[in-house]
Design brief:
By secondary structure, the protein is of the alpha+beta class. The protein contains two helices and 17 strands. The chain has a four-stranded mixed sheet, with no helix packed on it. Strands 10-11-13-14 form a four-stranded antiparallel sheet, with no helix packed on it. A hairpin with a 5-residue loop joins strand 8 and strand 9. The longest helix is centred in the C-terminal third of the chain and has 34 residues. The radius of gyration is 40 Å and the shape is elongated. The N and C termini lie far apart (154 Å).
Length: 247
């Protein structure tokens, strides 16, 4: 039998390792070969779609559209970095990961957007723009861009990493403090062609309610009538008492 004369630093790490063999009866006769250690085939992870849009109150299946295949391993477990809930408006960037028996780690990502019912969500090439319709009274109107962005809760999301960015007003048409409906467009400076448009409704200020003259007059007449009735009733009682006294 041949024996291992030198196995250098041969270990379970990817690389090429020279290993020397000989025979105990003649240790100077040596055969050296290279042992190559590979990581095997990495799993293939699919996360589709990469962007999921949900409404408040929706149920979430974190593994919907997520699958993994591997040449060596028949069964592998994919783990999301978090669980998404839908109780409030928000954006979550989730990383999915899987590790095979060779130690190969593969990851994939998905962006979850939880929106209000009246929010507009536009998915562009590299960015997502979200904005919500709103209503203002005439006295509340501000045509300042920052005020409009805040009122619409307008925001942008970078698809690559889920990074939240500021949305900008792309077009506010003739938005003014006059009753009407005004379309306002929002975008993101890095991708101005991705535009979300919402409608802003301006209503009149509330007018104080004044008492109606006819109603007030009716109240006075009713009160006066009750007073007269009570007076007559008291007079009648007094008259009967006087008659009894005379008898």
């Amino acid at each position: 039998d041949a024996i291992v004369a030198d196995k250098a630093n041969y270990t379970a790490t990817v690389g090429v390792y020279p290993i020397t063999f000989s025979v105990s009866g003649e240790p100077t006769t040596i055969a050296t070969i290279n042992a190559t250690v590979t990581a095997g085939n990495a799993p293939t992870l699919l996360v589709d779609p990469a962007i999921v849009i949900l409404s408040i109150g929706d149920s979430v299946n974190m593994l919907a559209g997520v699958s993994v295949t591997d040449v060596e391993d028949a069964i592998l477990t994919v783990t999301p970095s978090m669980t998404v809930t839908t109780e409030v408006v928000k954006t979550e960037f989730v990383t999915y990961s899987v590790t095979d028996t060779d130690g190969n780690i593969v990851t994939g990502t998905r962006t979850y957007i939880v929106k209000a019912a009246d929010e507009e969500v536009i998915i562009g090439t590299d960015y997502i723009v979200v904005a919500q319709a709103f209503t203002k009274r005439i006295s509340e109107v501000s045509i300042d861009d920052a005020a409009i962005v805040a009122a619409a809760n307008a925001r942008a999301i970078r698809i690559a990493d889920g990074q939240m960015l500021d949305a900008i007003v792309a077009d506010k048409a003739n938005y003014t403090a006059t009753v009407g409906v005004y379309p306002i467009a929002f975008s993101v400076s890095a991708e101005p062609t991705t535009i979300a448009t919402i409608n802003v409704t301006i209503t009149a200020n509330n007018t104080p309610a004044l008492p109606v003259t006819g109603e007030k007059t009716s109240e006075i007449i009713i009160v006066s009538g009750i007073s007269i009735f009570i007076s007559l009733f008291l007079l009648l009682i007094g008259s009967r008492r006087k008659k009894k006294d005379i008898r």
